[in-house]
Design brief:
By secondary structure, the chain is of the alpha/beta class. It has 10 helices and 10 strands. The strands form 4 sheets. The protein has a 3-stranded parallel β-sheet with strand order 5-6-7. The protein has a 3-stranded parallel β-sheet with strand order 8-9-10, with helices on both faces. Strands 1-2 form a two-stranded parallel sheet. The longest helix is centred in the C-terminal third of the chain and has 19 residues, at 207-225. The radius of gyration is 19 Å and the shape is globular. The chain starts with a strand and ends in a 5-residue tail after the last helix.
Length: 295
Amino acid sequence: YHRVCDAPEGSAPSIYSKRFKEHLEYLKRHYIILSLNQITESLKIDQEIAPASVAITFDDGYRDVFTNAYPVIKELNVPITVFLTSDCMGNNKMLWTDVVYFSFKNQNDLLYKNFKDVPSPQSSPPVGEGRVRGNCRRDKFRNFYTFKESLKGIDNEERIKIVEDLDVGSKENLMLSWEEVLEFSRNDNVEIGSHTRTHPILPNMDVEGARKEIFESKTDIEEKIGRGIRGFSYPAGKFNPGIKGLVKGSGYDYACAVGNRVNNLDTDIYCLKRITIQNEPLFCFAVELCGMLNL
């Protein structure tokens, strides 16, 4: 999961509060909900894990995880892991993907500057050839998604320069405060992990830049909550052998990717697979979890 919100505005996948509770109630009826720490400790020693076991994670560190998801988590007494983008906690900073989203929503003219030089995702028309301008909500979202995916494929420094030119207008504080993170950390059912400092696409960075994002996020969070953290989540699920080595070398015990697949005893604990959950009705959620969509 990323966000739990009934009127979402932003780049991240979101689910309605009522539907999120339905998901968790379904998991409690049909699965064994474990913490990521429990699962990874078992994987380290090749200890059998019950086939119907799941772990629940949240990426990014959006505030509505605290305001909307946390009451449900406490009510149902389930463990979760929250991976934080540390440089966006406790201030009014947005994830760069949200900056892009709100720029498209507001249709700021700076959005169209030099877009022809940004490569488009595979199978999409070039961004600079009629893909940006559009007034209806559908066009704006399609253009936002195309451009966001394009930015994920370019050098990190180039992406930073482009995003810095964008104007989102007035900013809503979307991210957690450190006080909220501290309350999370006091609950034994909530594990805190790192999602880098600024949510870059790590393979697009030089080694030193990637190391700083991975290592300094860990130290930032540990300093704020007063204890160590164990887990890491790759932004957008993207990594390579070098990035995985940096995560290991920074002192993390495990790392999560995406992959929309299930894990087994042979799974590398530094590239744990996860299923991205959006606002699926319960039936679709159940089908995804049992793996039928991967046949």
